[in-house]
């Protein structure tokens, strides 16, 4: 996970895009291409991506010809990450009143996940 922006439920995805992109670009200056779903489509979002360090925003859509559930590889990465986070009891429900508290618990969950993966890699080698 490169970055995370927790917002109240009444904030649209597009509105949270620019603050998230700005914070991610501060750390990952080499970032050139972003993949997003249809919620981020629109000229304003694409223009904001270009202004913030010449990032190309690519909207990933499922095929119109596809019927039923179809796995879209680039979107599946995000859904898989949500599944991993869903294993953490604290994140299953919204117990937090403050968005910064929720952000901290998501970051702790990702640290826990990555630490366990690194530990497994070290044990196998």
From TrEMBL:
Would you tell me the protein name for this molecule? Transposase IS4-like domain-containing protein
Which Gene Ontology MF annotations are present? DNA binding; transposase activity
Domain named Transposase IS4-like: which ranges? 2-113
Q: Which domain of life is it from?
A: Bacteria
Q: What is an example of a Pfam family matching this protein?
A: DDE_Tnp_1
Listed InterPro entries: Transposase_11
Keyword terms of this UniProt record: Plasmid
Name a single GO biological process. DNA transposition
